[in-house]
Specification:
A hairpin with a 2-residue loop joins strand 3 and strand 4. Helices cover 32% and strands 30% of the residues. The chain has 60 residues and is α+β, with helices and mostly antiparallel strands. The strands form two sheets. The chain has a two-stranded parallel ribbon. The protein has a two-stranded antiparallel ribbon with strand order 3-4. The chain is built from one helix and four strands, in the order E-H-E-E-E. The longest helix has 19 residues.
Length: 60
């Protein structure tokens, strides 16, 4: 039972998230042979003020 967690910045549309879940599920089933019904995809969205790169938050 593969469980895939995708962490990304907030701001994607519902259609984009739907497509992401579909494509990640397809990639997992294609590469592992897992049944589609056994694949779980969790999207964790982060606010830009909670994410930093190179010592700076993305909102700064």
């Amino acid at each position: 039972m593969p469980i895939i967690t995708v962490q990304m910045l907030e701001g994607r549309t519902d259609d984009q998230k739907k497509a992401l879940v579909e494509r990640v599920t397809d990639a997992v089933t294609d590469t592992t042979g897992a049944r589609k019904e056994a694949v779980t995809v969790v999207i964790e969205e982060m606010a830009k003020q909670h994410y930093g790169v190179a010592g700076k938050r993305l909102v700064d």
